[in-house]
Amino acid sequence: MGINKRDEGKKVNSNINVTPMVDVMLVLLIIFMVITPMLNNKVNVDLPKATSAEAMEDANKEDSVIVAVTRDGRTFLGGDQVTMDDIGTKVSALLEKKTSKKVYLRADVRANYGKVMDAVDGVRAAGVSELGLLTERRDPDEPAAKKQ
Predict the structure, then answer these.
(1) What residue ranges define each of the domains in the chain, with the CATH number in brackets?
(2) Coiled-coil segments, which residues (predicted)?
């Protein structure tokens, strides 16, 4: 005699497994939390095209303080070569008897950006509140990408 057996435990399970859905939603939440601050980092700034004629006249005066950074990383104060450690003290010594505390910085196009920033930091350490960056005026007929 055989026993009839009903397999009631093998019915279709209609419960929704929400764990994978929650995992996907958490990953998306983290991605959006990381990306959202990056979307608002755009600041509109009007950059100057070239140094104004007035600034060039001020820089060409005999008593103006000009710091220059050459292509090979050497730093000059006027016509004298200085080290990055001495630039702050020498600039402050030159400016202590002047009423205008303005310093001009001239850097070669191919100068190392780090050396230029070190010169700016040295000038700022001297207490200079106005630092002018000198450029050369470009002719309108000259092509934008000039071979160097």
Answers:
(1) 53-133 (3.30.420.270)
(2) none
